[in-house]
Amino acid sequence: MPLFSPPRHHRAAARLRGWLRPAAAATTTAAILWGTMGPVAALYPSGSALAVSEMRLAIGAVALGLAALTGRGQAARWQRREIPAAVAGIASVAGYSVLYFPAVELAGVASATVVAIGAAPLVAGLGHVLAGRGPLSRTWLVTTVVATAGIGLVVLPGALTSHRRVGIILAFAAACCYALQAHSIHTLTRRHSPVMTVAVLFAGAAVLLCPLLPRGVALVSGSLPALAGVVYLGLFTTAAAYALFAFGVRGAGAKRNGAQRTDQAGGDQPGHLVILVVWLVGSTIDSEPSVPRL
What we know:
Elements: H1 8-35, H2 37-41, H3 49-69, H4 83-107, H5 109-118, H6 120-130, H7 138-155, H8 162-188, H9 194-208, H10 213-220, H11 224-251, H12 259-267, H13 270-281
Helix pairs in contact: 1-11, 1-12, 3-4, 3-9, 3-10, 3-11, 4-5, 4-8, 4-9, 5-7, 5-8, 5-13, 6-8, 6-12, 7-12, 9-11
């Protein structure tokens, strides 16, 4: 044993920092993948938003299910007290999907995505306070104020038309679903693996929206680019992104979950989102997207 060893709390802090780094990297990577979802969805014809959302859910659920079944380790048995969190997670995953994609059509990629993801920390923080879980940290308050200002700069220049206003309302409703699903994932990953948790949530959401599946199949049948798009949305922006997000939520610890963990995932997105919009979609913040359709 060294003669001068660091204090115990210093060693504990060092171990905590080492554990938080992979969690932060996981949520950042998930945010980057989510940032590509809007530009890809904008390439589909108008009116196909719900069909795209169901195909994304179905492909993502299958991929997550296969990953969960082939994973190592003993899966924990599901308990009755976990049913409310699972039901809330399934409903919020389905709700986010059916709200976000129409919001992209109506409000544009940049506005819809910045509101749907960027407003989620605000919703989560309000829920945190209303549930009586204690005050929010100064870091959360500062980052949320900055994010809110950024959302306003992106949304307000193009929010004059009625259909854009409807799209922004849908995007904010999607943000509420996003915050709720983050809370559900945090609750369920206390006993279950991240992959198993999101596999159950997305399988339930895909079943809930299965009446839309025929429209999705018709959309991609006979079109290789359309099929490639929904495969990308299902495998990368759904299966991979949510598995990483669930890992980050679980790894960050209970104190930094909920509002603050949602804040990190949402706060990483707006900068690279605008770059993706400009380079991949060719739209501007205050104008209608003008893109080649799949």
